[in-house]
Amino acid sequence: MAKKSYAVIGLGRFGTSVARRLHEAGQEVLGIDINEEKVEASDMYFTHAVIADSTEEKALNSVGIKNFDCVIVAIGNDIQSSILTVMLLKNLGVKNIIAKALGKRHGQVLESIGVEWIIYPERDMGERVANQLLSPNMLNYIELSKDYNIEEIILPSKMAGKNLRELNIRAKYNVSVIAIMRNGNVIVSPSPEELLQEGDILVTIGNRSDLALFASLK
Ligand code: ATP
């Protein structure tokens, strides 16, 4: 992956997680926080971290905010600061802005000022936990649209020892298997002759209700 530069504004739990992961993946990350302690505590994770108030245009200019490929606004509780920061970023011509929203109205304001991607960590995590409880065989998922998901589903035990041709999953359950994860390896576009094993994780694509039915099989 090509190296990109990211600025993370707000080094709370959310901002720190985003920044740490990007840094671990070899990306260039600048952390920004108004609170000195947060900046000092983050030192070991980032390429750089600076103390600055992101609601001040001068502060944003002095870190060269326009030159970053992507700016993540991870301020939540202080809604006013979050909105002011995003407006300044927009005015300064920052193209790619991601912002965390605490709730619906915060999100709506961010949307109206043109934030490309709004994240609702509590809401999204809550939904994830509920989905996991409803369907324990489903390990992870990506929402492709309102109706379609890609999901990692543990192979129903009764299917172990059979191949994909016999199981005919697409015709029977309206679900397509796009990969199999086995012992840390990924078998992409598995052949119809691929023999499935207990413990396999199927990476599947389909309609959400069809996937839910498939994930409920024993
Ligand atoms: P999290 O839920 O991610 O842990 P939090 O609830 O601790 O966040 P938030 O209010 O969302 O706190 O703020 C996240 C960080 O943003 C804090 O560390 C705070 O110091 C920082 N922050 C708030 N306002 C500004 C600002 N104007 N400029 C820079 N950083 C700011």
TrEMBL record:
InterPro entries: NAD(P)-bd_dom_sf, RCK_C, RCK_C_sf, RCK_N, Trk_Ktr_HKT_K-transport. It comes from the Bacteria. Pfam families: TrkA_C, TrkA_N. Residues 3-119 form the RCK N-terminal domain. PROSITE patterns: RCK_C, RCK_N. GO terms for molecular function: monoatomic cation transmembrane transporter activity. Residues 136-218 form the RCK C-terminal domain. One of its GO terms (biological process) is potassium ion transport. Transmembrane segments: none annotated. Coiled coil: none annotated. This is Potassium uptake system protein. The lineage of its organism: Bacteria, Bacillati, Bacillota, Bacilli, Bacillales.
